[in-house]
Design brief:
103 residues, alpha+beta, two-stranded antiparallel ribbon, 2 helices, rod-shaped
Length: 103
Protein backbone atom coordinates (compact mmCIF):
# COMPACT_ATOMS: atom_id res chain seq x y z
CA UNK A 1 0.00 0.00 0.00
CA UNK A 2 1.34 3.45 -0.95
CA UNK A 3 1.45 6.09 1.75
CA UNK A 4 0.98 9.63 0.39
CA UNK A 5 3.95 11.90 0.87
CA UNK A 6 3.50 15.11 2.84
CA UNK A 7 2.97 18.23 0.75
CA UNK A 8 6.22 20.04 -0.02
CA UNK A 9 6.73 23.68 0.80
CA UNK A 10 6.66 25.82 -2.41
CA UNK A 11 10.00 26.94 -3.77
CA UNK A 12 10.94 30.49 -2.84
CA UNK A 13 11.89 31.28 -6.45
CA UNK A 14 8.19 31.13 -7.37
CA UNK A 15 7.02 33.25 -4.45
CA UNK A 16 7.17 36.90 -3.54
CA UNK A 17 5.95 38.95 -0.62
CA UNK A 18 3.06 41.32 -1.13
CA UNK A 19 4.39 44.90 -0.84
CA UNK A 20 1.26 45.95 1.07
CA UNK A 21 0.66 43.16 3.65
CA UNK A 22 3.86 41.06 3.32
CA UNK A 23 1.86 37.86 2.71
CA UNK A 24 3.29 35.09 0.50
CA UNK A 25 1.95 34.92 -3.04
CA UNK A 26 2.99 33.74 -6.49
CA UNK A 27 5.21 35.96 -8.63
CA UNK A 28 2.64 35.94 -11.44
CA UNK A 29 -0.27 37.05 -9.22
CA UNK A 30 -1.95 40.34 -9.97
CA UNK A 31 -4.17 40.33 -6.86
CA UNK A 32 -2.91 39.52 -3.36
CA UNK A 33 -4.94 36.63 -1.88
CA UNK A 34 -4.47 38.01 1.65
CA UNK A 35 -5.28 41.74 1.49
CA UNK A 36 -6.74 42.17 -2.02
CA UNK A 37 -4.10 44.67 -3.23
CA UNK A 38 -3.93 44.86 -7.03
CA UNK A 39 -0.97 45.23 -9.35
CA UNK A 40 -1.56 48.36 -11.39
CA UNK A 41 0.22 49.35 -14.60
CA UNK A 42 0.64 52.98 -15.56
CA UNK A 43 -1.02 56.05 -14.13
CA UNK A 44 -4.39 56.07 -12.40
CA UNK A 45 -7.07 58.17 -14.13
CA UNK A 46 -6.48 61.02 -11.65
CA UNK A 47 -2.72 61.02 -12.34
CA UNK A 48 -3.33 60.93 -16.10
CA UNK A 49 -5.64 63.95 -15.86
CA UNK A 50 -3.10 65.85 -13.77
CA UNK A 51 -0.36 65.09 -16.33
CA UNK A 52 -2.57 66.10 -19.25
CA UNK A 53 -3.57 69.31 -17.48
CA UNK A 54 0.06 70.14 -16.74
CA UNK A 55 0.90 69.59 -20.40
CA UNK A 56 -1.94 71.88 -21.44
CA UNK A 57 -0.67 74.51 -19.04
CA UNK A 58 2.88 74.31 -20.39
CA UNK A 59 1.56 74.48 -23.96
CA UNK A 60 -0.54 77.54 -23.08
CA UNK A 61 2.41 79.28 -21.45
CA UNK A 62 4.52 78.54 -24.51
CA UNK A 63 1.93 80.12 -26.81
CA UNK A 64 1.79 83.22 -24.60
CA UNK A 65 5.60 83.42 -24.47
CA UNK A 66 6.05 83.30 -28.26
CA UNK A 67 2.85 85.27 -28.98
CA UNK A 68 1.60 82.66 -31.39
CA UNK A 69 -1.57 82.82 -33.44
CA UNK A 70 -4.57 80.47 -33.19
CA UNK A 71 -3.05 77.66 -35.29
CA UNK A 72 0.22 77.59 -33.35
CA UNK A 73 -1.77 77.80 -30.11
CA UNK A 74 -3.89 74.78 -31.03
CA UNK A 75 -0.85 72.75 -32.03
CA UNK A 76 1.06 73.73 -28.87
CA UNK A 77 -1.88 72.82 -26.64
CA UNK A 78 -2.37 69.46 -28.39
CA UNK A 79 1.33 68.59 -28.22
CA UNK A 80 1.48 69.69 -24.57
CA UNK A 81 -1.54 67.56 -23.66
CA UNK A 82 -0.17 64.49 -25.46
CA UNK A 83 3.28 64.88 -23.90
CA UNK A 84 1.78 65.37 -20.44
CA UNK A 85 -0.30 62.21 -20.80
CA UNK A 86 2.63 60.15 -22.11
CA UNK A 87 4.93 61.37 -19.33
CA UNK A 88 2.30 60.52 -16.71
CA UNK A 89 2.00 56.99 -18.12
CA UNK A 90 5.77 56.49 -18.22
CA UNK A 91 6.35 57.92 -14.75
CA UNK A 92 4.35 55.18 -13.07
CA UNK A 93 5.43 51.64 -13.97
CA UNK A 94 3.84 48.67 -12.32
CA UNK A 95 2.99 49.11 -8.66
CA UNK A 96 0.75 47.61 -6.02
CA UNK A 97 -2.23 49.66 -4.89
CA UNK A 98 -4.11 48.66 -1.72
CA UNK A 99 -7.73 47.64 -2.02
CA UNK A 100 -10.05 50.60 -1.50
CA UNK A 101 -12.19 50.37 1.60
CA UNK A 102 -15.87 50.61 0.76
CA UNK A 103 -17.78 52.90 3.09
Amino acid sequence: MNVPLPMREPEMSGLQLCPVCRGKMRRTAEVCPHCGAQKHFGATPKEALIGTGAGLGVGGLLVIAVRGDLLIGGVALAVGAILGFVLAQNRYGDRWLPKKKSD
